[in-house]
């Protein structure tokens, strides 16, 4: 007789470390799914208490646990339009070949997924910068939009924002970027593993010591652009925030 394993997949050492540091877990439930483009989905969730327990800040992200190869893998995802009054939010998924992207493509209303909250932080800079320089891609589009919303709601809503946005598919250029009048967007096709965008940022350098820089791309490009912001643009170390959002050619997390 063949025995079927009913073992629940474990979270491995990452789960153990997060638990040790007291990270909180929530069960999210899918409430709707919307195709935004052929490579981008928006999924609605109710938060299982997440938004009563955790304050919302721009770029707020959670660690979602996806099953693949009999194990659970954590991946970072950003909350979109979080509404604490109803404990609901959306998450937007850039689609490629990965466990998280596959889960999003198959998600049905009523499906659940676990989220761990730990590590997300962003403090709006004080005093307000003279301008913002943002570098991102479809994975960081939700975070960029949350920054644009926060800037619009700040004491300096008309401060100029320049965005270098890396795209991989023509349809990415139709994605809803929440830019305002006066903002500048440089659309850069992903070429040479991200160096096209890095070169575009470098070639536009000016003395931007009074600006704030924010970067979230693949890991190599993130490091390169953060270093250009600090070196060529002369932005102070504390005024550059960078985080790698994914790794070219391999799983992240
Ligand atoms: C703080 C934080 C917030 C994030 N927020 C979001 C978000 O809101 N929406 C979102 O879509 N992503 C977001 N990401 C990125 C997301 O976590 C990664 O893209 C993740 O690797 C996806 O997991 P996966 O299981 O689908 O693919 P993986 O198993 O990690 O990777 C499988 C393959 O896909 C490739 N790959 C992974 N991500 C991408 C990508 N973005 N573009 C092209 N190829 C890729 C890898 O190089 C690898 O070859 C965030 C990451 C962080 C750290």
UniProtKB/TrEMBL annotation:
From the UniProt annotation, give the residues forming the signal peptide. Answer: none
Q: Tell me one Pfam family matched here.
A: FAD_binding_9
Give every FAD-binding FR-type domain span.
Answer: 23-127
GO function term, MF aspect, one: oxidoreductase activity
Span-the-membrane segments of this chain are: none
Q: Which InterPro entries match?
A: FAD-bd_FR_type, FNR_nucleotide-bd, Riboflavin_synthase-like_b-brl, SIP_FAD-bd, SIP_fam, SIP_rossman_dom
PANTHER family, per the entry: FERRIC REDUCTASE, NADPH-DEPENDENT, NADPH-DEPENDENT FERRIC-CHELATE REDUCTASE
In Swiss-Prot or TrEMBL terms, this protein is called FAD-binding FR-type domain-containing protein
Which species expresses this protein natively? Gordonia soli NBRC 108243
Q: List the lineage, top down.
A: Bacteria, Bacillati, Actinomycetota, Actinomycetes, Mycobacteriales
């Amino acid at each position: 007789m063949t025995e079927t394993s009913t073992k629940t997949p474990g979270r491995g050492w990452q789960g153990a470390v997060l638990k040790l540091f007291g990270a909180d877990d929530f069960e999210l439930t899918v409430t709707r799914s919307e195709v935004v483009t052929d490579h981008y989905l928006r999924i609605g969730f109710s938060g299982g208490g997440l938004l009563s327990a955790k304050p919302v800040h721009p770029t707020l992200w959670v660690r979602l646990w996806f099953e693949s190869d009999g194990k659970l893998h954590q991946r970072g995802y950003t909350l979109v339009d979080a509404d604490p009054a109803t404990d609901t939010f959306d998450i937007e998924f850039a689609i490629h070949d990965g466990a998280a992207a596959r889960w999003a493509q198959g998600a049905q209303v009523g499906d659940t997924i676990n989220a761990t909250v730990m590590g997300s932080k962003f403090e709006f800079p004080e005093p307000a910068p003279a301008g913002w320089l943002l570098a991102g891609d479809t994975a960081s589009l939700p975070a960029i939009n949350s920054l644009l919303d926060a800037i619009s709601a700040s004491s300096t809503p008309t401060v100029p924002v320049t965005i270098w946005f890396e795209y991989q598919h023509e349809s990415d250029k139709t994605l809803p970027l929440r830019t305002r009048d006066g903002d500048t967007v440089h659309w850069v096709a992903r070429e040479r593993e991200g160096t096209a965008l890095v070169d575009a940022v470098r070639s536009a350098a000016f003395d931007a010591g009074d600006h704030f820089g924010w970067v979230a791309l693949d890991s190599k490009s993130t490091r390169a652009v953060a270093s250009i912001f600090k070196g060529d643009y002369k932005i102070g170390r504390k005024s550059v925030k960078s985080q790698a959002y994914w790794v070219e050619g391999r799983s992240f997390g």
